Structure formats: C-alpha cells, structure tokens
Here is the input.
Amino acid sequence: MSARKDYITWDEYFMGVALLSGRRSKDPSTQVGACIVNSQNKIVGAGYNGLPIGCSDADFPWEKQGDFLNTKYPYVCHAELNAILNNIGMDLSGCRIYTALFPCNECSKAIIQSGIKEVIFLSDKYDGTDVSIASKKMLDTAGVAYRKVIVQRECIELSFNEKDV
Here is the structure.
C-alpha cells in the first residue's frame, strides 16, 4: 500500500485551523479566525474575533450599525490581535499568520510590532477601502509579506462521528 496522495497542504491545514478557530466567535454576522505558525510549521497562537476576557458576550452589543457605543466595534478584539495576545509565550519574530480576512490597519500594527513576517489570508473583501489601503501601506513599508492562500479544494468536511476515525 502506498501513502495517501490527497492529503491537505500546509497552507490548507493552517487556514483550516484559522477557519475552525473563527467558529468560536459569538459574533452573529462575522466569524474570523487566525492561526500563527513558526518556521518549523508549529502552531504558536490562535484566536478569533470576540470580546476581551472578563467581558460577557451578553453584556455588549453585536450590532454593525448605529451609534458607535451601541455597536460591536469599540469592544471586539479581532482574530489576529487575539492570536498574538494568546500566543504560547514565545517571540513571534519570523512567524507567519493565517487569517480568514485580510487584517485591518489596527491588526497590521500588532502584526508588525510582534515581528510576524508573512500574512496569508483567505478573503480580501475590503480591498480598496481606507482601512485596507492603510494596512497594506504599513505592511509594505515594514517588509511584511502578504498573499492570498492558494488551495486545492473548496472545502474540508469534519465529522465528530467516532465511526469516521
């Protein structure tokens, strides 16, 4: 018997971890996840968009529109920031971050400051907006590479049925 040929690539694996992490988000409209990987392909951090520790999901708004203080925006930590803050306690210099959505300018600041050297993203749906332009300008200036993930498959199905193991 020969080895399987249809196994997932490293990019698919780590983007899959980012997407699965996003499923932890309580945000009813946007679930974003991120996964930080070192040069040995070891996961050293993961995160999703959500409220800071100690802030109950029930006590804060999840609205996208309206008065600023009555929306989610001043309260939610983005997936990339959470992955950086929740890392395993190591220097992130030279690491790469996989994220479902191209990072905003605020997350790009944290990515640059942490020493991460590459951003791999799935969606760039805000391309051309001021936030995206600012983000790319900072990443370019700081020498942080970024690229859209290239995948061989559209989806991966997970089963929690023990018969499938």
About this structure: Helices lie at 10-22, 79-85, 105-114, 130-142. Residues 101 and 123 are 5 Å apart (CA to CA). The chain has a mean pLDDT of 96.
